[in-house]
Amino acid sequence: MAARADVPEELQRFDALARSGSGSGSGSGPWPSFEEYSARIGGQLCPWRETCYFDVATDPALVSVANERFEALASALGFPIPAPFLDALRRGAAAGPEVLQIVLGIDAAPERARLKYYLIFRDRSDVAVERLRAALDVPPLPSSLQPGSVYILGIDFTRAQLSDFKVYVRLDPTRAPRVIRDLRRFEALWRGSRYLVFQHCQLSGGRQVYFHASSATVLETWLAAAAARDELAAEFVGGQIAAMNACLAKQGHQLLRPWIASLPYRDGALQGGPSNLYFHFSDAGS
Questions:
Q1: pLDDT by residue (tens digit) across 118-157?
Q2: Interval 249-281: pLDDT, tens
Q3: Distant-in-sequence, close-in-space partners of 52: CB < 8 Å, separation ≥ 6
Q4: Is there a contact between 196 and 168 (Cβ–Cβ < 8 Å)?
Q5: Nearest alpha carbon to residue 32 among 69, 77, 7
Q6: Is the pLDDT of residue 5 over 60?
Q7: At the top level of its lineage, which domain of life is listed (predicted)?
């Protein structure tokens, strides 16, 4: 973040608290297992997003670490979280063996900042999803959704209210062309992905498809073509990411490279260019 002088203060505070448990970034608590930086690209560019992953399946002690940091982040950054949700977390709603990772994130968009609490599952997810859905008084999930099929649960909070309750399901490769009728338009991206994930936003009604690339090179090639016709994508890749990587290279760190892209989905087809881009620290040959 030192590559830019205009980094929002709340993103810097999130970074310090989520990573070390200290507002100064020098706390002694465990650091996240993995970090991710991303941008939302729509009517305007929002590059101020960070997510921190805690591998709770590997170390169950990280459940309490992640949950305590989420409460500390909400308090420090001024996000009022519904008490029943926090109570559900304290009672173990995210502590079961089916949870692979707890993910804390922020979208520090000046016009509408969001604090994020996500769960990634490795086994049947229906019990945990239902407990948290009930705690937040969210309408029941679509009847077409197979119980236990949720791969990721994403919960977003604004400073005013619960913003969204999002479920993500891995797409069966044999069904993907039937679900996405224009998938052939994205042949290279599709064939170069390890898997596709379908997102349904329970409150906002939005839907997206996420392409999890088999290598950073796949997305870099695709983004080079997208940037040629998408001004915001070009601004983010050629400006923000280039500046961050120049700074990282000077410090001898790995570079940020793209690994996930999402496209809006409507009426059985993908819409326009990328709406979200996700970058991980990777070696140049990845």
A1: 999 999 999 999 999 999 999 999 998 888 999 999 999 9
A2: 998 888 989 999 999 999 999 987 668 889 998
A3: 18, 19, 32, 34, 35, 36, 103, 104, 105
A4: no
A5: 69
A6: no
A7: Bacteria
Task: Tell me whether residue 285 is in a domain.
Answer: no
Give the residue-averaged pLDDT of 228-233. Answer: 77
Does any domain span residue 2? Answer: no
The 3 state secondary structure assigned to the chain is CCCCCCCCHHHHHHHHHHHHCCCCCCCCCCCCCEEEEEEEECCCEEEEEEEEEECCCCCCCHHHHHHHHHHHHHHHHCCCCCHHHHHHHHCCCCCCCCEEEEEEEEECCCCCCEEEEEEEECCCCHHHHHHHHHHCCCCCCCCCCCCCCCCEEEEEECCCCEEEEEEEEECCCCCHHHHCCCHHHHHHHHHCEEEEEEEEECCCCCEEEEEEECCHHHHHHHHHHHHCCCHHHHHHHHHHHHHHHHHHHHCCCCEEEEEEEEEEEECCEECCCCCEEEEEEECCCC
Residue holding tokens 């063996």? 97
**How many folded domains does the chain comprise?**
1
- pLDDT by residue (tens digit) across 64-113? 999 999 999 999 999 999 999 999 999 999 999 999 999 999 999 888 89
What's the pLDDT score for residue 3? 46
Residue-number span of the structural domain to which 244 is assigned: 9-279
Q: Is residue 4 part of a domain?
A: no
